[in-house]
Amino acid sequence: MSGAPVAGTDIRAGAGNAGDPIFEARNVSLGFGGVKALSEVSFSVRKGELFSIIGPNGAGKTSMLNCVSGRYRPTSGKVFFQGRDITGMTPNHRAALGIGRTFQNLALFGHMSVLDNIMVGRHHLLKNNFLTGALYWFGGARREELAHRREVEEIIDFLEIQHVRKAMAGTLSYGLRKRVELARAIALKPDLILLDEPMAGMNLEEKEDMARYIVDLNEEWGMTVVMIEHDMGVVMDISHRVMVLEFGRKIAEGSPEAVLADPRVRTAYLGESDEPEPETAAAAREVA
Questions:
Q1: What pTM did the predictor assign?
Q2: Alpha carbons within 13 A on the beta-carbon side of 210
Q3: Which of 9, 22, 180, 197 has the fewest Cβ atoms nearer than 10 Å?
Q4: Comparing C-alpha atoms, which of 33, 40, 34 is closest to residue 67?
Q5: Which contacts of 266-275 are long-range, i.e. CB under 8 A and separated by 24 or more positions?
Q6: C-alpha 245, offset from chain centre
Q7: Are 94 and 81 within 8 A, CB to CB?
Q8: Which residue, among 266, 226, 269, has the nearest Cα to 246 in the 3D structure?
């Protein structure tokens, strides 16, 4: 795909256009028995922002996304979407409000076509019921299906998967299945889209394409994006703000540059330390 970002190229054109908070987490904690997945995590995401969550494996990133989408309910704390407390809402209700997501592990229907998989994402927008659907040619169900198919075809064109639109999802390469999962999340028409490691397992070219799609979703389609990603080059290039988790706690939040310069982040995430090596410290004591 032409115009794809490369490492070291800042493409955050909309970084200064973010508006009021669209989502807020207040002191969110999550426990599973004696295991504390999240501990009093608070943050907000502004409307129009591309917000990334990073951290070592097991830091609580996906658990946080699950609390946002409704898959998990926090042990304590609250989550708000567009000023509304959604802590007790089901995932279906949150999807209807405008929260969509992709999963770290692909959750496509392998026996269904790409087109049908994406159409599943439109399900909550369908107005016809069982009775009117039975009168397909006379009750408006046909017109509604055609309108939804036009929306889906626009998404297919955007993600450049026209050539596989009729293929079974289970037969596609990993990179294409990742695009189909993104397409299904876009089909929800979300105001807030949650992306759980959208580039995991991809080669460089696939990552560059996916990064450009995400930026275009944010800037051209107007979707607020919350993304978990391990590729620090991608995070630095496209994120407006970044939050860092370690062992379920927030240790940093801010611009990518400020977060990367934080010594706690360099220690926790990059494995670096400001403390001198033992040999260096011993040598310093001998000199002293």
A1: 0.81
A2: 28
A3: 9
A4: 40
A5: 268/55, 268/56, 268/244, 269/54, 269/55, 269/56, 269/244, 270/232
A6: 15
A7: yes
A8: 269
Q: Rounded distance, CA 170 to CA 71, Å?
A: 25
Token pair listed for 247: 């062992």
Residue 29: its H or E element: strand 21-32
Burial 47-69 (b: 16+ CB within 10 A, else e): bbbbbbbbbbeebbbbbbbbbbb
Task: Quote the strand ranges of 203-280, DSSP E.
Answer: 224-228, 241-246, 249-254
Rama region for 31: left / alpha / beta (φ>0; ψ in -120 to 50; rest): beta
189-223 pLDDT, tens digit per residue, is: 899 999 999 998 899 999 999 999 999 999 999 99
DSSP 170: G
CA 134 vs CA 121, 137, 140: distances in Å: 21, 9, 10
* Pairing relationship of beta strands 192-196 and 224-228 according to DSSP bridges: parallel
CA 59 remoteness from chain centre: 16
CB atoms within 10 A of CB 96: 13
CA–CA gap between residue 218 and residue 179 (Å, rounded)? 16
Nearest to 195 by CA among 158, 239, 157, 135: 239
Which residues are CB-neighbours of 254 under 8 A, at least 6 positions away?
241, 242, 262
Note the Cα 154 to chain centre separation in Å.
Answer: 21
Q: Tell me the pLDDT tens digit for each residue of 68-92.
A: 999 999 999 999 999 999 999 999 8
Q: Within a 13 Å sphere around the CA of 235, how many CA atoms are in the beta-carbon half?
A: 27
